[in-house]
Design brief:
By secondary structure, this protein is α+β, with helices and mostly antiparallel strands. It has a single domain, classed as Glutaredoxin (3-Layer(aba) Sandwich). It contains 4 helices and 4 strands. A hairpin with a 2-residue loop joins β3 and β4. α1 runs parallel beside α3. The structure holds glutathione.
Amino acid sequence: MSKVEIYTKGYCPYCHRAKALLSQKGVEFKEIAIDADPSMREVMIDRANGGYTVPQIFINDTHIGGCDDLFALESKNKLDALLAQ
Ligand SMILES: N[C@@H](CCC(=O)N[C@@H](CS)C(=O)NCC(=O)O)C(=O)O
């Protein structure tokens, strides 16, 4: 099963949308709430090569991007293969 990590904030419609898609697919993910632990914001920005909006999503340590990027993979039928790795 793939390792899925998602950096989030509490009030973030894009985060909710991304998590809903993953949940709908039955994917387990690790959520890192950067508002609960601000030091994680720096970690997120570093791992996301400067990406500072939430969510930032990683599958098996590969940076996927944000919610729109996740849905773009889904619409190209590429997400399931990544999640199956
Ligand atoms: N296109 C981005 C939009 C993400 C976005 O705008 N997120 C908002 C929160 S919902 C954000 O991070 N705003 C800047 C901030 O909170 O510092 C995506 O699909 O993930």
